[in-house]
Design brief:
This protein has helices at about 45-60, 75-85, 100-110, 125-130, 135-150, 170-180, 205-220, 235-245, 300-305, 305-310, 320, 335-340, 355-360; strands spanning about 15-20, 65, 90-95, 115-120, 155-160, 185-190, 225-230, 270-275, 280, 290. With about 350 residues, it is α/β, with parallel strands linked by helices. The protein binds iron/sulfur cluster (2 copies). One iron/sulfur cluster (SF4) binds near residues 190 and 333.
Length: about 350
């Protein structure tokens, strides 16, 4: 049976991000869904949300991250969170922090949301606000962190980087620690949504490798908070190779709210994303839909989608990824392959590694 298999022998759904609304009170340059304030609130009313939660419960018990847009713009956010908690899901929420106050924290706790995540893309207001396209965004995150700490609510800091802010990676990590984050997730953006416009702002392949090597050294020293490069599947290659070189244990700490990976890219393998119209995707950055929950159950989509079957079949992976000994632990970012090559089976365009099997050919 496959390592990721659930009770029925099929792949187990472990983590699900659900965009409750595409409406947002910010307009970030790299936004996956190109959200803004005038975006629609979304297709899920309470009855539809309840049906989806029941359908999910019929196949799995994943972590569910309520996201957006900005989920706090929905009046029924906490009602939906509570329904998830009552069905035994570990509930989480992603917010930009602008609307966080004491009352919101009280509702977060009451609804059973166990952890929240916020974005912080620089260590100063100038850098973060420029990246988020909104002045005051940095101050909102700082204030929200303080309020979360006061209420004992754990939070994760997600930081996105492009050429524009890559020189501040270390400073941003240090600030995330200082403001009391339980975890810091570094993310080098995948071009999709509004991000397509900044394709030429992507961190170069060479810098990418160097940044991941820095992350390896930092993670080895870091004992206080959990750190993870997000959607940098080749980090698993670096982690395994360097640990072996240095004679160190390759086991890593993890958070009960992490994507349950143990592997680089897990899009459509143990995670999925549902947008505010009910379209289901392998992950938040992968623009091909596997189906829609208003037309089929989530169980049918998860088990039978041809796209998900493709992503789970490593034999179909091409280029150097298909010949790489790290394919099973890394897999390359399928969304980046699709964005750059127009083929999700193509090799990961931001990996510098040349597998032995490929070296022998050149
Ligand atoms: S395809 Fe995989 S690595 Fe890429 S963004 Fe999606 S989950 Fe992350
Ligand atoms: S070649 Fe592909 S599978 Fe191998 S480490 Fe690079 S991205 Fe991962």
């Amino acid at each position: 049976m496959c390592k990721l298999a659930g009770m029925d022998g099929k792949q187990e759904l472990k983590w699900l991000a659900w965009e409750l609304t595409s409406q947002c009170n910010m307009a970030c340059v790299h936004c996956r869904s190109s959200s803004e304030f005038t975006s629609p609130i979304g297709a899920f009313n309470i009855a539809a949300a309840e049906k989806l939660l029941n359908d999910i419960a019929a196949i799995a018990s994943p972590v569910i991250v309520l996201s957006g847009g900005e989920p706090l713009l929905r009046d029924d956010l906490f009602q939906i969170a509570k329904m998830g908690t009552n069905r035994g899901f570990r509930m989480a929420m992603a917010t930009n922090g602008l609307l966080v106050d004491d009352e919101v924290c009280r509702k977060i706790k009451e609804s059973g949301i166990n952890i929240v995540s916020m974005s912080l893309d620089g260590h100063t207001s100038k850098i973060h606000d420029n990246f988020r396209g909104q002045s005051g965004a940095f101050d909102a995150v700082m204030r929200a962190a303080q309020i979360f700490r006061k209420h004992g609510i754990k939070f994760i800091v997600n930081s996105s980087f492009t050429k524009r802010n890559q020189e501040y990676i270390k400073d941003t990590y240090e600030l995330a620690k200082k403001i009391g984050a339980a975890a810091w997730y570094m993310f080098l953006i995948v071009p999709t949504g509004r991000g397509e416009e900044i394709m030429n702002e992507l961190v170069s392949k060479e810098d990418y490798e160097e940044i991941l090597e820095w992350h390896y050294r930092m993670e080895r020293r870091e004992g206080e908070i959990l750190v993870r490069p997000t959607c940098a599947p080749q980090y698993y290659r670096i982690w395994n190779a360097k640990s072996r070189e240095e004679g160190l244990d390759s086991k890593r700490r993890s958070l009960s709210f992490s994507t349950g990976g143990g592997k680089g890219c897990i899009a459509g393998q143990s995670i999925l994303f549902i947008n505010s119209e009910g379209d289901v995707y392998p992950c938040s950055y992968f623009p091909i839909s596997a189906g829609n929950v208003f037309k089929q159950s989530i169980g049918e989509i998860w088990k039978n989608s041809g796209l998900f079957e493709d992503l789970r079949d490593f034999k179909k992976y091409g280029g150097k990824c298909g010949r790489c000994k790290y394919l099973g632990v890394c897999g390359g970012c399928r969304a980046r392959s699709y964005a750059v090559e127009g083929d999700y089976f193509a090799e990961e365009p931001f990996c510098s590694y040349i597998p032995k099997a490929v070296q022998q050919i050149i």
